[in-house]
Structures are given as C-alpha cells and as structure tokens.
C-alpha cells in the first residue's frame, strides 16, 4: 500500500486557500475552553465541574453530548501535527488529563459525558440517540492523541474503554443472542469497527480483532458483498463509517472480500448517488440510484458524509493507485469540504449544502452554525477536515527500492521527503477566468548537501486539463497524458525546479438521473471547480450547446464595481436592488451577505466611450463626469437600472446584451447637486434636469421640486466583488454570474442548469 506522508512532515504555505481554512479552524479550536468542553464528563463522573456546558448538541440534556469533544481530540491532535502550535498542544493535553480524572473516578473503564443508562436502553432496543456514535468519537480522539501526539495516557484510557465495551457486548450476546447484537446495530454506531481495527493494529490482541468484527454490520456489508445496489433508504452517515471499518479489516487481516465490497460501494455511490460537488445524500438518506433530479433541495449533502467518503476514496487510492479515486478526492475536497466554512469566521459552518435553485447556505434548516451553541455532528467532522488538509497531498511507495513520492493534490505546501533526503516546495498559481492556466512548481533542496541518490516524483496529470506541459530546469519533457501520473526520475539536487502547466477548460456534466425529464440538467465546471450561478431561483439557460461552453460562457474582470450611498437621518444607506428588481435604499450590507451583491453595480460606459477600461472611485467623481453610463447589477448580468418616466419608479430591466437595453437605462454622471465633493448625481440621458432621487427608501426620477441632497450619492468600492474565477453564462433569457460554489457565503445560487 501507499503510505501518506505524515502531517508532521507537511506544511501548508500561507498563500493557499487551504492554509487560510486551516488557520480559521485553528482559531476556532483555540476559542474553545477546556473546562466548558469537559463539563458534562465531570458531572457524569460525579466530579466538581468548573465553567459551563456549551450549547446545541453539547447541552447537558442532549443524549449525544460529548461527541464533539471526541472530534476535538482528533482535530487538535492533527492540528498539532500540521502546525506544531504550542497553545493547541497545551489545551489538548489538558482535555486528556481532565478526561482521565473522569475515567478514574468512574472506575470501570467507562468514559462518556452521559451515564451508562443510555447503553442499557440501547441494548434493550429502546429509543436512544446513538450512544455508540459518541463513544466512537471519544475512542477515535484518544487514539489520534496517541498516534499524532504520542500521548500514552490517552492510549491507556482507550484500552480501558475497549475492555469495558467489549464486556458489554459479550454480555448482550450471552444474555440474548448474536442476532440481538446485530439488531442493536440498526442504531447509528459511528465507526466502532474502524477504531477497534486500528487498536488491533497496535496491540495485536485477538480480543480487539473480535470486538471490531462484531461491529461489522452484516446486513449492510452483505448487500455490498453480493454487489447489490440497494443502499436506497439507508442513512448515509450511519453506513459510510462501517465501510471505512471494513476497509481497515482488509488492511489488518487481508480479507479480500472487504476490499472488493468497498470498491463496489465506492463505484455505486460515485456513479449513481453523487452530486456535482462530490457529496451524497438528501435529508441524510440515499435515494434510488440515478434518481437525483428530484432530490435537489435545502437538505442535500450532509457534510459528515463528504468527510467520510473522502476516507473511503483515500484508502482505495492507497491500495490501487487508480486515478479516479484521486479525482474524486479532489472534487469532493474542493467543492464539498472547502465550502463548509463561512469565509474566515471561526466556528461558523454548515450542516447541509443546499443544491436547489435559489438556495443559500444561510437558509437551509440549520443554516450557518455558531461557535458555541451548535456543535452538530457536522461541526465535529468539519474541525477534523480542516485540521488534516495536508494528509492527502503526498504519498510514498515504501516497497520500491527507489524512493517514490506521489503528488495527487495541487496545494502550495512544503514536504519533507525523508526517504529521498529532500525537502520539496510545491507552489501553485491558480487559473483565473481570464487566464485558464494553472502553474505548479516543485523546488528541491537536499537535506544533506552533497548527498544524492535517485528518486522518482510521480505527479498527477488531471483529467480536466485540456493541455499540459512540464519543464525540468527549463527543458521541456514530453508525453503528459491527462488522467495518469507523470514520472520524473533523477538524482535530485538543491536548485532543481520542476514546473507544470495545466490548461483548464469549461465543461458540463449531466446530473446523475437517467430519467428523460432530467436529461437536460447540467452542472458547469472550470477545471476542478464547480461553478454556481447567482440566482433567486432561475436555472434555465435554454438552447446553448453543451459541447462548446466557451462560446456562451465568458470571463469577467474584477473592475468598475461600485456602491452608492446616501446619509439619511444620520445613517448611511446604500442603493440596492431587491430580488424582484425594485430599487431602494438599505442599511450597510455586510461582505458575504445576500444583500452585498444587490448593493454593488458595475459602471459601464457607453461603447463609444470605452477609452477607459478600468477606473477607481476617484475617477467616478472627476474623470467620468458628464459621461454617459449605465448601472448593471453585479449578481444579475444584463440587468440595468432603468427609469420609467418622470415621478415614476426605477427598477432593473433585462438588457439581454452586452450593450445597453434602451435610453432609459443611460444616465449622465454629474457633479453632485448637493455640492459635496466625493458625491455624484445621475441625470437621465435625454431628459435634461431629471435625476435619480431617493425618497426615503424609494428611488424615483424627479425633474423639479426635489431635495438636492436626495439626488446626490456618495461613491465607494463595491460591497461585493468578482471572484478571480468569475464568468457570465449567457442563456436565452437570462445571464448568470458564475463563480466557484466554495466561495459563496449567504448569496443565493443555482448549481444545476437546464439546457
């Protein structure tokens, strides 16, 4: 098997999006108080508890309390390995020490934030909320503390828990039957088999192997073993961890059946149950195969399922080196995982990823969580995901005589390739909408100067690359094939530089639905990035050619975006459009909010005056005075501010062209009627003396007897801006602003389009 390079030997470089996500996650982990985290553990153990319990699923009344603490143990251990941040190291050791006191006080090896009575109910097949799910998280967290941070106390605690639960399972089987034990597994048990197989890998104790196998759910794994695509109706995140555990059984025992069934599982999920993001599930459950068209809603793609499917794909890649597993990993990581956080706000994450047209991450059932009162299951997997972003970039082949390093992700990072005696610095320069080329460079440094030996670097050539080039120290190498690894073997030395360029293309992929009514539903990609279009619910493109998207999808430059303000009753108000096209003045919109793009306009000069392509705020109030312009809404390309005559309303109209729809959408920029510097007024072209006026919240065109202050607007940089990978997709009736789904915050979007 390939082995992943240790997180201790990989460092994300600060210019990468992933490094920003990792830092945001670290900031959140450092916000969490040790006493608050272990509060319910202490009260359950009968110890005095300082601090107070956190909210949400960690409330003292929640039957799942303690699950997040298990995730915290894993996430903090991996964050320590990824960053060597001393504060997180101290905090996680304090949590382990506090939990050890709780376990010692109980005295049986049991450790949880809830009493053993929940397991009494579980074993009696009474209603209870997944106690083994939480126990798995705690056990996995302790194991990760041992694995990544060499905390031997954590491993002793883990063995105590293993003995306790081993005895409980044996008593159930002796008192009732093995069948009764299997029945109890219909409740979610997390990855109990996974963590127990990992324990067995360390101890070699047969009782740990036996207990792990008792959590291999036969009624589910049996379906996969006979290659039945019958996962419809199963709770996705209950069963993906069971497959991960089955994969561990293959690794530790060599039982090929478990390799085969996990390959089959990956095949059916990825080919008939996966959305364009790489995620799966609707309302937490799998639907019928190739029937995703009518599942698009607000409750798609539970984040936990993406986290766990990445584990499945990672294991399969390690075993087989097959490229399609690496491709899946890239897609799900970029479009599924990196979309979970709300920008750089620590502790603000989502549970579900809505995929219905007009959806927003902010308006699903759960919406955005909060740092101290959510703690959903997906908060736990999210903090783990962002703590180990460096664990699947580099893999080594330890079997070969010649050291070999596989690179499957393009992520600015530095890796210690100890087997080859090298440090490798990977730098990634991403494509933009105007420049489709992604450049990846590898710079080599010998760890011991003068000591060289042959080593092989194997770099993934992505399937999405329209063309590829490779230069070694400035000399071009040949025969790069998309969807394969490109191998370069040599005696590497300090100063060697290997450069790749991958040219991305726009492409469309059909939704996984074989019914004719959904045959025209497509997602749009740019390289590995899923593009979502800003939309209040529209998703129809019409008669476009799916095989030549570059003819109707055009790049957008980030320029000439402004917001227009007015001071009303001491409060700064912003000119903004509503979803129905009406214009009004609103309070200052926050960056990333749904309102920010509605209060941002692209200032377009008339075609005959396009001598200035890009201008700044100061130009609007000076250089552009007396020029004719139109105001195009940022998130609705082709929609222009239009007046409908004197003393009538002002609203957006659809120009449906790259020019201007009518003279009613053309205004002359004038010096502000207020006389204030830094302000402007908009005079209707062809109607001298008539100006846009803000009457309170309403916007009208007025020609006389109006307040000159109300016809004057300040100019600022736009409250929203274009993403570097922004495009305009021109349909029959609408034009959509497209950019990667991972960069959306509260804005509404469509992921699938009808063509």
TrEMBL record:
It comes from Selaginella moellendorffii (Spikemoss). One of its GO terms (biological process) is L-arabinose metabolic process. One of its GO terms (molecular function) is alpha-L-arabinofuranosidase activity. Residues 404-502 form the Non-reducing end beta-L-arabinofuranosidase-like GH127 middle domain. The lineage of its organism: Eukaryota, Viridiplantae, Streptophyta, Embryophyta, Tracheophyta. Signal peptide: none annotated. Residues 9-391 form the Non-reducing end beta-L-arabinofuranosidase-like GH127 catalytic domain. It comes from the Eukaryota. InterPro entries: 6-hairpin_glycosidase_sf, AbfB_ABD_sf, Beta-AFase-like_GH127_cat, Beta-AFase-like_GH127_middle. SUPFAM superfamilies: AbfB domain, Six-hairpin glycosidases. It holds the Pfam family Glyco_hydro127M. Transmembrane segments: none annotated. This is Alpha-L-arabinofuranosidase B arabinose-binding domain-containing protein.
């Amino acid at each position: 098997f390939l082995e992943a390079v240790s997180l201790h030997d990989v460092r994300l470089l600060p210019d990468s999006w992933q490094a920003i996500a990792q830092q945001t996650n670290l900031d959140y982990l450092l916000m969490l108080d040790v006493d608050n985290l272990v509060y319910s553990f202490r009260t359950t153990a009968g110890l005095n508890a300082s601090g107070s319990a956190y909210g949400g699923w960690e409330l003292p009344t929640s039957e799942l309390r303690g699950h997040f603490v298990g995730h915290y143990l894993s996430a903090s251990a991996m964050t320590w390995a990824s960053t060597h941040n001393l504060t997180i190291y101290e905090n996680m050791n304090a949590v382990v020490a506090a939990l050890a006191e709780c376990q010692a006080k109980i005295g049986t090896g049991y450790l949880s934030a809830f009493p053993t009575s929940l397991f009494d109910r579980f074993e009696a097949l009474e209603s209870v909320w997944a106690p083994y799910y939480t126990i798995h998280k705690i056990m996995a967290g302790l194991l990760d503390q041992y694995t990544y941070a060499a905390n031997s106390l954590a491993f002793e605690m883990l063995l105590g828990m293993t003995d306790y639960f081993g005895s409980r399972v044996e008593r159930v089987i002796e008192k009732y039957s093995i069948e009764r034990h299997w029945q109890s597994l219909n409740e979610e048990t997390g990855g109990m088999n996974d963590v127990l197989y990992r324990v067995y890998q360390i101890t070699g104790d047969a009782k740990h192997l036996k207990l792990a196998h008792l959590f291999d759910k036969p009624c589910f794994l049996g379906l996969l073993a006979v290659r039945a695509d019958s996962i419809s109706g199963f709770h996705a995140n209950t069963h993906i961890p069971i497959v991960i555990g089955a994969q561990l059984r293959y690794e530790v025992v060599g039982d090929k059946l478990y390799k085969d069934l996990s390959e089959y599982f990956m095949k059916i999920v990825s080919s008939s149950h996966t959305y364009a993001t790489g995620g799966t599930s609707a309302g937490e459950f799998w639907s019928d195969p190739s029937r995703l068209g009518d599942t698009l809603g607000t409750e798609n793609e539970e984040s936990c399922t993406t986290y766990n499917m990445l584990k499945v794909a990672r294991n399969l890649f390690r075993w087989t080196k097959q490229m399609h597993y690496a491709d899946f990993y890239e897609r799900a990581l970029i479009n599924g995982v990196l979309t979970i956080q709300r920008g750089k706000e620590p502790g603000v994450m989502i549970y579900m990823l809505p995929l219905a047209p007009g959806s927003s991450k902010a308006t699903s059932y759960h919406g955005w969580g909060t740092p101290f009162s959510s703690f959903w299951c997906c908060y736990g997997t999210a903090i783990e995901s962002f703590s180990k972003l460096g664990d699947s970039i580099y893999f080594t082949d330890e079997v070969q005589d010649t050291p070999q390093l596989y690179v499957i992700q393009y992520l600015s990072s530095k890796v210690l390739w100890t087997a080859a005696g090298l440090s490798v610095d990977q730098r990634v320069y991403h494509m933009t909408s105007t420049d489709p080329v992604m450049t990846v460079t590898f710079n080599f440094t010998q760890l011991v100067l003068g000591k060289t030996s042959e080593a092989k670097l194997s770099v993934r050539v992505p399937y999405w690359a329209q063309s590829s080039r490779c230069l070694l120290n400035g000399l071009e190498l040949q025969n790069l094939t998309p969807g394969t690894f490109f191998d370069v073997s040599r005696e590497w030395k300090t100063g060697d530089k290997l450069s790749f360029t991958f040219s991305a293309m726009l492409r469309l992929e059909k939704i996984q639905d074989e019914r004719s009514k959904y045959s025209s539903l497509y997602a749009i990609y740019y390289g590995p990035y899923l593009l979502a279009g800003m939309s209040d619910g529209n998703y129809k493109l019409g008669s476009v050619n799916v095989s030549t998207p570059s003819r109707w999808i055009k790049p957008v430059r980030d320029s000439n975006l402004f917001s227009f303000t007015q001071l009303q009753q001491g409060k700064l108000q912003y000119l903004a459009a509503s979803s129905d096209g009406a214009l009004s003045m609103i309070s200052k919109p926050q960056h990333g909010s749904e309102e920010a793009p509605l209060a941002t306009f692209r200032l377009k000069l008339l075609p005959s005056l396009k001598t200035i392509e890009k201008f700044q705020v100061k130009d609007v109030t000076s250089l552009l005075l007396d020029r004719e312009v139109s105001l195009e809404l940022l998130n609705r390309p082709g929609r222009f501010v239009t007046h409908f005559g004197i003393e009538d309303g002002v609203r957006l109209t659809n120009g449906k062209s790259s020019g201007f729809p009518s003279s009613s959408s053309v205004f002359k920029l004038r010096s502000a009627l207020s006389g204030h510097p830094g302000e402007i007024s908009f005079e209707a072209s062809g109607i001298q003396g008539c100006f846009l006026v803000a009457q309170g919240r309403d916007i009208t065109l007025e020609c006389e007897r109006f307040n000159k202050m109300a016809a004057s607007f300040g100019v600022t940089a736009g409250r929203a801006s274009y993403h570097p990978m922004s495009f305009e997709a021109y349909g029959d009736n609408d034009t959509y602003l497209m950019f990667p789904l991972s960069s959306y915050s509260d804005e509404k979007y469509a992921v699938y389009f009808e063509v």
